[in-house]
């Protein structure tokens, strides 16, 4: 029997603080985003997936002008003529991190490598044990690790073909410690070390702990292979979603497993990285409530990942005197600097509430700059051209327009050379990634036409010059028209463009350079059709703020005015 064509699709991404929904309709053979909404997530401290989805659907069906909910609160499926939907694509970032313990052969190799992977994939690393420690210390540390009740233990160490005994002895001690623990409180163990020791480790743990052997993260000295551990951690993160209230209901409605928001976003970033007309590399930045992620993709491969705190779990960090001083450097008035600590403490009392005042938004914007800087600085240097930067974040985008997101990106990441900038304005990239696993054509059409919001093409100058002196002469040719101008040192310019392709010519002067392009001759750059605007950043790299408070406040006000 031929299956009916999917006409209506519900997209939903349920986070700690906000739930984002979109309704996709097939019109004249093409899938388009027909309606969208954003509502507070229901539940505390963890979001209730079913209740959050129902609350969002109530609002979405009002916008759509047709019923989407059944009387019992479930989504109406399949769609009939004027009611319901055919398919659901769901993601969530609301699950708590996996509580993890790491056991490694040595501190400087095994533990360091495993810690980097586990931390960057959002696990809560509770304890670490090095098998090179003296036996009494090692056994006491293993007992302390078990007492913390981790959900996962990662056992790493030794090159392939190396000594097996340390790993097998550690597994034997763990088996003895966990035999008296009830099964529901026992963790799983991922063996990501010397492959020769895998059989002995599995035998020692048999009947006590579930053991999964993956590829050695350090198969030979100087060789890293993280894919096996990364896949195991991703599966653990998806398993955490089952701990959320309402998970069983929502999974039955969707008819498939729910993806993590991180996994869904990664699918979209990989897709963009494979588009030759967009660029050769993608830097993806996701400002979340409980983590700020930076991911780098080259083609279909993830080539770097880093994790910094989020806008909620990072609030206490910003009250540290040194961090608070850094944050205040990005605030445009003395009065706001004086009130920043109080505003942060008040937000800590209601962390999931959206900012209600201009001052609150300014403090969150300053915090976002620092989080983006911390996450992006942990990645390898980026190419200065053919680079796409993709920015998203529910707690941030819920209150900040594209201009504020642009400024946070420029100040926090300090891109160099020429880059194309995109933003997830509706916070739907994660769930489009989930849809891509079901209906790739639908996901592609909605992404390209409705959800890949381009901020513009950015050209950033490197070097330093005298503020107000010429740094760059530019010429834009589009549709037979010619626009010429000068960018001075210290300035930000945003130049609107028409829908047609354009040719940009840049002539740096006054010591300015555009990284990725040879100096001494004009630079020509083709701007693709549909590029919304050209952004010229003449503030130099690295970006520095004036030391004088009055001058600094005036500069910040000018930059904010440019990006409004």
Structure description:
Among the domains are: 8-94, Nucleotidyltransferase, domain 5; 99-241, Rossmann fold (3-Layer(aba) Sandwich), CATH 3.40.50.261; 461-563, no CATH class. The model has no long low-confidence stretch (mean pLDDT 90). With 564 residues, it is an alpha/beta fold. The protein has helices at residues 49-64, 107-120, 135-147, 165-178, 198-205, 227-240, 247-254, 261-273, 315-318, 321-328, 334-349, 358-377, 394-397, 402-413, 429-436, 440-451, 549-563; strands at residues 8-14, 18-27, 30-40, 87-92, 99-104, 124-130, 152-156, 188-191, 211-213, 259-260, 281-287, 292-298, 301-308, 387-392, 417-423, 453-460, 470-478, 481-488, 492-496, 502-508, 523-527, 533-537. The strands form four sheets. The protein has an eight-stranded mixed beta sheet with strand order 13-12-11-14-15-16-22-19. It has a five-stranded mixed beta sheet with strand order 3-2-1-4-10, with helices on both faces. The chain contains 17 helices and 22 strands. It is globular. The N and C termini lie far apart (55 Å).
**DSSP E strands, number:** 22
Instruction: Write down the overall geometry.
Output: globular
CATH architecture name of the domain at 99-241: 3-Layer(aba) Sandwich
- The rounded Rg comes to 26 Å
Cα(first) to Cα(last) distance is 55 Å
Question: Runs with pLDDT <50, length 5+?
Answer: none
Tell me, what is the CATH class of the domain at 99-241?
A: Alpha Beta
What's the CATH superfamily of the domain at 99-241, by name?
A: Succinyl-CoA synthetase domains
CATH fold annotation of the domain at 99-241: Rossmann fold
Cross-sheet strand order for the largest sheet: 13-12-11-14-15-16-22-19
Helix content: 25-40%
Instruction: State the helix count.
Output: 17
């Amino acid at each position: 029997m031929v299956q009916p064509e999917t006409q209506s699709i519900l997209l939903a991404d349920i986070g700690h603080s906000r739930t984002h929904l979109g309704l996709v309709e097939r019109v004249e053979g093409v899938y388009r985003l027909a309606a969208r909404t954003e509502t507070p997530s229901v539940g505390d401290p963890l979001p209730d997936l079913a209740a959050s989805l129902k609350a969002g659907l109530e609002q979405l069906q009002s916008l759509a002008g047709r019923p989407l909910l059944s009387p019992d609160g479930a989504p109406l499926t399949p769609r009939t003529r004027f009611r319901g939907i055919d398919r659901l694509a769901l993601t969530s970032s609301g699950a708590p991190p996996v509580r993890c313990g790491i056991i490694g052969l040595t501190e400087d190799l095994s533990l360091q490598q495993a810690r980097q992977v586990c931390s960057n994939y959002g696990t809560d690393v509770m304890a670490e044990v090095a098998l090179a420690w003296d036996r009494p210390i090692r056994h006491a540390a293993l007992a302390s690790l078990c007492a913390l009740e981790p959900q996962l233990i990662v056992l790493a160490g030794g090159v392939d073909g190396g000594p097996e005994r340390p790993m097998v002895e550690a597994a034997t001690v763990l088996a003895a410690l966990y035999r008296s623990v009830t099964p529901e409180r026992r963790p799983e163990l991922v063996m990501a070390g010397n492959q020769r020791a895998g059989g002995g480790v599995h035998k020692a743990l048999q009947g006590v702990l579930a053991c999964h052997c993956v590829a050695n993260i350090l198969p030979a000295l100087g060789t890293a292979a993280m894919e096996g551990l990364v896949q195991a951690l991703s599966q653990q993160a998806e398993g955490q979603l089952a701990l959320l209230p309402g998970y069983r209901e929502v999974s039955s409605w969707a008819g498939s497993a729910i993806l993590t928001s991180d996994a869904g976003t990664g699918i979209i970033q990989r897709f963009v990285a494979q588009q030759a007309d967009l660029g050769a590399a993608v830097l993806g930045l996701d400002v979340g409530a409980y983590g700020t992620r930076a991911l780098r993709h080259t083609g279909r491969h993830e080539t770097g990942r880093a994790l910094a705190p989020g806008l909620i779990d990072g609030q206490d960090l910003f009250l540290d005197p040194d961090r608070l001083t850094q944050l205040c450097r990005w605030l445009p008035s003395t009065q706001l600097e004086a009130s920043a600590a109080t505003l942060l403490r008040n937000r800590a009392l209601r962390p999931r509430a959206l900012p209600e005042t201009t001052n609150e938004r300014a403090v969150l914007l300053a915090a976002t700059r620092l989080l983006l800087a911390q996450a992006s600085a942990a990645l390898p240097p980026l190419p200065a051209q053919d680079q796409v930067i993709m920015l998203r974040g529910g707690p941030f985008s819920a209150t900040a327009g594209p201009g504020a997101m642009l400024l946070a990106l420029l100040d926090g990441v300090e891109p160099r050379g020429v880059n194309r900038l995109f933003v997830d304005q509706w916070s739907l990239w994660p769930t489009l990634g989930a849809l891509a696993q079901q209906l790739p054509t639908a996901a592609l059409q909605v992404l390209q036409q409705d959800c890949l919001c381009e901020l513009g093409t950015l050209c950033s100058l490197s070097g330093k010059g005298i503020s107000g002196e010429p740094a760059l002469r530019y010429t834009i040719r589009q549709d037979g028209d010619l626009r010429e101008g000068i960018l001075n040192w210290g300035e930000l310019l945003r130049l609107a463009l028409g829908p047609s392709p354009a040719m940009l010519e840049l002539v740096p002067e006054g010591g300015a350079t555009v990284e990725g392009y040879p100096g001494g001759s004009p630079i020509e750059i083709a701007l693709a059709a549909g590029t919304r605007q050209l952004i010229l950043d003449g503030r130099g790299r690295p970006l520095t703020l004036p030391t004088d408070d009055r001058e600094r406040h005036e500069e910040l006000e000018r930059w904010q005015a440019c990006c409004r």
